[in-house]
Amino acid sequence: FDPERTYALILSLHGASVPSDGQVGCYAPKDWAFVVAPTNRRRFGFDWQDWGRRDALEVLEQMEQRYRIDPDRIYLTGHSMGGHGVWHVGLHHADRFAAMAPSAGWNSFPLYVPLYLRKDYMYAPPALRSIWERVIREDRTEAFMENALNVPAFVLHGSDDDDVPVTHARRAVEMLTGLGYEVTYREKPGKGHWWDEGDLPGTACVDYPEMMAFFKERTRNPAPRRVVFVTTDLGVNDRLYWVQVDGLKRLYEDARIEAEVIDDHTIRVTAGNIAGFTLHLTDALIDAKRVTVEVNGSRIGDFRLEPAGGNPQSFLPLSFHIRKDGRFRAGPMKKRRFQKTSEQYGPIKAAYFSPFVFVYGTSGDAEQTALNLHLARIKAQLWWWRANGHVRVVPDEAVDEEMIEDYNLILFGGSESNTIMARIAGKLPISVQPGSITVGDRKIEGEGWAVRMIYPNPLNRKRFVLVNAGTDVEGMRLTEVLGTMHSAAGLPDYIIYNREVKTKGWGGVTAVGFFDQTWRLDRRLGEW
């Protein structure tokens, strides 16, 4: 190791049950690259989705801060569940990597663990099921293959793999080949899920010599002339290379934008389900003082490129938004005082993506207080078990201004038993009272109803509150079910249900959906 030298980085994602030190120990030392294996929070973790994806990216950032890493020689690889992580992380953040290489990786849940066997599919009506599908859409590898336009892929799989069938690799390679993208496929005859070859250094199914040579021959192009960006959830990623999506016309539905530098004076854009976008141009892309932008076949105008902050190598962003007539025009989307952003987008699980505390209510009777504390402790234990993290559990009376400023508040108890909930209840779009819940123009009355809801904290709009409440003690107990701390959880911004969820899954849900761009209820985004 030479501290003055710049190295490549191989980010290696482990499989289910594999400790990260075991993963990194399967590699022979490299004189040209660091090999680092994140933990996914735990050995099983989150399938490299949600908190697992964030963990991988945080480790990448820490390596860049600690060592001299060439940002154009960062490679992503992984085995089994880690192979799935390569697809998931690599396609959502394709601009971070020079190449990616899944080994024995599964593509997405529907092909690996059939979701139609879940109670949600058996009992939930199609309208409710479609909302759940939209929440977990970002998990579907196949939907985002186009994002790999500028990231070469090396796919490795054993023909006799009885854990992850080789069908996964063949299907992914077929899709990339059909798109005309660069992909190299090696299917090893007679090899299973985990295998080695001869006396080669390292374990061949992860430290495969041809894969390492593939990496060494490739560097990232940080400013490709053509970018294809498909997304459904701006909270996962809102930018790929120099193209940023500022808003979707229809939330949590597939959105696609393709931008290409045609020549030094022209950029051509096609956009579907895009409400607004921004182009971050540099002199590596455009060598002109003026540029013409075309969107969906229409010429928007000629624009003078101004240096950004006095830096002649980059230009001030160019933003565009869609009008009511469906045509784009120059200028950013209208900013509202209260709106969804990539940092504060939802859904429910997003409350756990930045620092949070559990706040249990103490203002009710003894039974309510004991139940609120009990539920908070269950969730805290679950967070430790799944995510390897400790949670601060505090009574509502201990919440001070500093806590409101710094943390998302996960609230246990309704306004009758939690003083924080009582302070904000009148500013929430869904009303929860003893014996009733009001959502939009519908009032749900009776015993045993539970509500879960994420919303910007009315006491500090920069942070979230996550409400766990019920119409009574029975409803409050039900907030424990329909968990969020696992991959493919599929809970949107709000959900209201009764005890039938225990036997019917989403078949026991009576109201569910997303808030709109301004955090208001919208019938087009929910069912109630």
Short description:
The chain contains 13 helices and 29 strands.
SSE order and pairing:
Elements: E1 7-13, H1 20-24, E2 33-36, H2 51-66, E3 69-79, H3 81-92, E4 99-103, H4 109-112, H5 119-123, H6 126-135, E5 153-158, H7 167-179, E6 183-188, H8 209-216, E7 226-231, E8 239-240, E9 243-248, E10 255-263, E11 266-272, E12 274-279, E13 290-295, E14 298-304, E15 307-308, E16 311-315, E17 318-322, E18 328-330, E19 356-360, H9 366-387, E20 393-395, H10 401-406, E21 408-412, H11 419-424, E22 430-433, E23 436-439, E24 442-445, E25 450-457, E26 460-470, H12 473-477, E27 494-497, H13 501-504, E28 509-513, E29 526-527
The assembly state of the depicted protein chains is single chain
Low-confidence stretches: none
Straight-line N-to-C gap: 61 Å
Per CATH, the class of the largest domain reads Alpha Beta
| Global mean pLDDT | 96
Q: What structural class do helix, strand and pairing data support?
A: alpha/beta
Strand percent estimate: 25-35%
Radius of gyration: 24 Å
Got a strand count? 29
How are the strands of the biggest sheet laid out side by side?
20-19-21-26-25-27-28-29
Q: What number of structural domains do the residues give?
A: 3
CATH homologous superfamily placement of the largest domain: Alpha/Beta hydrolase fold, catalytic domain
